[in-house]
Amino acid sequence: MTSNRSYNLTARALLLSCLTALAAVPEVNAADILVGPARNIKTLAAGVATARSGDRILLDAGTYTDDVANVAVPVTIEGQGAGAVLRVTQPIANRKGILVVDATTTVRNVTFQGAYVTDNDGGNGAGIRMQRGDLIVDNCTFIENQNGMLVNPISGATITVQNSRFVGNGSGSGYTHAIYVNEVAQFTVKNGTFDGTVVGHSIKSRALKTTIANTVIDDGVAGTSSYGIDLPNGGVAVLDGVQITQGPNTQNPAMVAYGAEGNLKPANSLTIANSTFINKLISPSAVAINNFTTTVLAVLIEDTFQGNAVTLKGPGGGSTAAQGPVVRQASVFSTAQATSQSHLRFYNSGSTTGTVKVTLFDGATGSSLAVWQSGDIAPNAAPQISIATIEAAARQPFARPAYYAVGIQPNFSGSFQHVLYRPADGTLTNLTACDTGIGSSGAKLANAHSSLLSSDWPSSIVVYNTGLAVSAVTLGIFDARDGTRLGTYTSPVLQPGGQASLSVDSIEAGANIKPTTGMSHYTMRVEGAFTGVLQQLVSNERVGVVTDMTAVCALGGS
Length: 558
Fold this sequence. Notes:
By secondary structure, the chain is mostly beta strands. It has four helices and 47 strands.
């Protein structure tokens, strides 16, 4: 017989178990919190105080004066319409910033203006003061703050600032900056502009990894900034597509400083590519890049230097050795031709991860219009990039001509294709025709269509045995997006001089591959002994036309 005490203990344990389980259930009812002068919640501070994890705080367009807030749970703060302006007219009471962040946060379409605290409180008020978590700042503006952004040391954190503008930030003390990021795991700035920073640095980063891309830093005529970019403790740094103009009134003669304070990170490298340095300081000490270290080699790739300044002080130098020869392709359709869409494909058939740089030239004048740098392309990957994506990489707006000439410079071995898609009739055409001549990879194929595209553009792979013996062929099959091996397929036995046309659907079935959403293309390569070639044919079902998609241009001397 069970005692009452035993029963009560069992019931209590069950109740505690249920309560624990309920406590572990994540918050799923994220909400939109509407804030504005005509709303029930009228201030950002009140909206943040109301927020729960995952909520979005939507600020009506307009100016919010002396409205400061502390974020304690993960949220998104987003200005609506023309954007919200958070403007300070008196010393910030929290002695830190307009927005003090203690949890992972995204801030979008908000202007931070005039943040300041008294000298007794440190004189370093910030538009955003980041203290914990990760941060994304998108399409924001920072105007005349003591610090535009100030980020505390946060182990493992990722800080991303994109499509944002910094104007006239800095108190003049030399200890405040447009952006100052202490040690985090990764700090990224992309598509940014920095104008007229006052005495301090436009960007100062102690991050383990710093990436600055497609960003303009301009001191202007009256600007008094110090370094355009300061990386005082080194780290892994990549500057790509950066333009820095050093004005005549700068407080420091160097545009980029690396390792100026020593105490280098565990991993250190400095790569500056596709960047422009313009010096307007009349001084023999003017320098574009000052590498204070003695052990880290600065690698400069395809950079431009204007004005009387030393290009590089310290170890390192220009290098294009890592890049392969340029392959040139004409008659690439721009987005000005809405009826035809050009796509470029880059197949890495080598054994190491690489990248590719693409330059768009005006087909009529030959002038350079845009430079696009890929991300990492893994072995056996073959990403397809639209011309619209490459156009968007331009640092300055330009009038799109009807056609581009394109320069393609990889640092891997592989192949390239130019494919044209016409939405009106649904046709795909291989327009590959480069200055090095076209050919085929023989034992390798890029961008074979998966069965996800079979309704409109089914692919078939023709396998041709050119050897003197009966043979089958084994194909390794990889996801073209990232090079992940998906499986292998072995063909039927082929007679000498014989061939077989294999639908991609049948290859998937034989390799037990079921493509998931987004897995539209495969790369394939012959594995093992086989003498012969591969050919890819695509049927344009809407018009009943078959297109040979095999032709490629070799990249990297392959």
